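Postdoc handover notes: sequence design on the structure in folder B. Input tokens:
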């Protein structure tokens, strides 16, 4: 599996988890940084880099969340 596929799968897994787990969605939307969001994902078995999360900020959850300051 190539890096692009792994990244896409991780993002898809995070979106699916946020959809079925309101606690995760809330924690993700209130995360203070992509590093914190990556840690939340890791705690639930999803491996994703903070860089990938940064590049996809505002597109993980509805309403443009999460959106971290630059």
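Designed sequence:
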């Amino acid at each position: 599996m190539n890096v692009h596929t792994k990244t896409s799968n991780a993002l898809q897994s995070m979106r699916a988890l946020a959809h079925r787990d309101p606690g995760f969605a809330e924690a993700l939307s209130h995360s203070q940084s992509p590093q914190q969001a990556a840690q939340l994902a890791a705690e639930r078995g999803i491996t994703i880099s903070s860089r990938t999360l940064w590049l996809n900020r505002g597109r993980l959850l509805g309403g443009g969340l999460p959106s971290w300051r630059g």
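Context for whoever picks this up: The chain has one domain: 3-64. Don't rerun without checking with the PI first.
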